[in-house]
Amino acid sequence: TLIAGRVVPFFARSVTPGLRNEVSIGRERALAMSTSLALLAWLLNASPSLTAALLLTAAGLHLWRLHTWQPKAALRRPLLWSLYLAYAWIPVGLVLLALAQWQIGSISPALHAFAVGATAGLILAMMTRTARGHTGRPLTAGRAESAAYILIAVAALLRVGVPLLLPGLYQLGLIAAGLCFAAAFLIYVVVYTPLLTTTRADGRDG
Predict the structure, then answer these.
(1) 3-state SS class at 38
(2) Could you give the CA distance from residue 99 to residue 96 in angstroms, rounded to a whole number?
(3) Which of 91, 87, 88, 102 is nearest to 57 (CA)?
(4) Is the pLDDT confidence value at 4 over 90?
(5) Cα 177 to chain centroid, rounded
(6) How confident is the model at residue 21, as a pLDDT?
(7) What sign does the dihedral 69-73-79-84 (CA atoms) show?
């Protein structure tokens, strides 16, 4: 979350002229402290009610941060909405983890929200953005990249939603999520291997 708090607003400003999403030091400190306390309480098996309250507070702060990044400005830019969409899985995971403290569901959906939705989603979004930037390509994404971003989100949705809402389809959901996950990164390999193994498009060294 610390890295996302620095990188996502910077990337947004770099491709969206006139966007104002300045980072608030106070908000960032409150968010970091809240998230750390919530996860520490969870790891130490603190009181379920206290842990849930801390997790929900952290989730609210992450949603607040996401709102200040002006997500509407990203809707027409896949390189941006992919970052915003992946980041949104963090508060989702925190809420699911809070619900698990009250025996509503298990921690598995929460962990997959973090691992598949947030972590894998942010990794894929960052890899495409940095690959284009460091190979001298325009900071735009086409249909292939958009498909990859959506596939990661679908994989996360399946791993989170099916166990909670359709437990009878768990195995089918698991297979479908795995296929979506693999397909997303396969698209990256196919599209970006030529970019990363040839000279920069702008003729510069690197």
Answers:
(1) helix
(2) 5
(3) 91
(4) no
(5) 16
(6) 66
(7) positive
